[in-house]
Structures are given as C-alpha cells and as structure tokens.
Design brief:
The longest helix is centred in the last third of the chain and has 26 residues. This protein is α/β, with parallel strands linked by helices. Helix content is 45%, strand content 14%. Helix 1 links the parallel strand 1 and strand 2. The chain has a single domain, classed as Rossmann fold. Strands 2-1-3-4-5 form a five-stranded parallel beta sheet, sandwiched between helices. The chain contains six helices and five strands, in the order βαβαβαβαβαα.
C-alpha cells in the first residue's frame, strides 16, 4: 500500500500537534506516511523528499512547522502536489504569529493552503476533501463525517432545550 498523504514536520516535537492529522486520516482509512525534516537543518534531505513525493504516489502533503516555518513553502516550491501548511506554536515562537505568517505569506505561484495555528486536524480533513474528489468511496465516507458533525450540533441543541434557568426563554434556530 502506498501513502496517499505525506505528513512532514520540522521536528519530532511537533508530533503532538501533527498526530491530529494522522488520527483523522486513520479514521478515514487513508494511507499516509510521517517524517520529520527541517528546512533549515537538513535542506538537502528536504529537497530529495519533495522531489520524490510524486513518484512515490503521494497526492497531498501536510507540512507543519513552528518558528520561522519555511518547511511547507520549500516543499511547495519543489513539488507540483498540493501542500497544506500547519503553523505550529513552538517554544521559540512569537505566539505562533511567526509560523502563521511564514506559511501564509507565500509568493505568487507557490501557494500553501494554510490552516489555523496548531490546526493539524483541519489539515487532515482538507487532505481527505482533496483526495475525495477522485475517490467516490472516500467521498461517501467524508459526506458521512460531515453529516455526523451536523447531527452532533442538532443533538446539542436538543439537550440545551432541557437546561433550566429562571429567565431562559425559548430561542429560535
């Protein structure tokens, strides 16, 4: 089985965030790989990795990094595959803004789809949406996931109807 998604992070310390993408891909039964590569510490290996993605069958890359988060951008500069960037609030981060701006502010022609700070789960969800465009079975699973999200909200509203307060009136939806 070949990986359809490649999850890469700047450091193994980012795994606590990036595992949320992996967990969602697991839920959807999407094969993936995980690597740690630093754009600054091992640039040659990053180039080799990015150059080999397409030939290994990977369709989407999820790249997370903190601080001066150049990993998603350098991968996007090398591969024709879509790259989803996950800015990570790291120990040397400026409240995560450095990571957000490093990933978000890409030059024209080198896009990186950027999710929220520490938003690896959404990166996994976006990767599945991209893959589902060409995979009917995966699209069916994804539609069920979305339907289940809606059901949770509706159920929560039903439960809120039973919450009692002296001055609570019936709300409209």
């Amino acid at each position: 089985m070949l990986a359809k998604v490649s999850i890469v992070m700047g450091s193994v310390s980012d795994l606590k965030i990036m595992e949320n993408a992996a967990k969602f891909l697991d839920e959807m039964h999407v094969p993936f790989e995980i690597n740690a590569l630093s754009a600054h510490r091992v640039p040659r290996q990053v180039m080799e990795y990015a150059n080999g993605l397409e030939t290994r069958g990977v369709k989407v890359v999820i790249a997370g990094a903190g601080g001066a988060a150049h990993l998603p951008g350098i991968i996007a500069a090398i591969t024709p595959l879509p790259v989803i960037g996950v800015p990570i609030k790291s120990s040397n981060s400026i409240d995560g803004w450095d990571s957000i701006l490093s990933i978000l502010q890409m030059p024209a022609g080198i896009p990186v789809a950027t999710v929220a700070l520490d938003g690896a789960r959404n990166a996994g969800i976006l990767a599945v949406q991209i893959l589902a465009l060409a995979d009917e079975e995966l699209m069916t699973k994804f539609k069920k996931f979305k339907s289940d999200l809606a059901s949770k909200v509706l159920k929560a509203n039903e439960e809120l109807e039973n919450v009692k307060f002296d001055w609570k009136v019936a709300g409209e939806r």
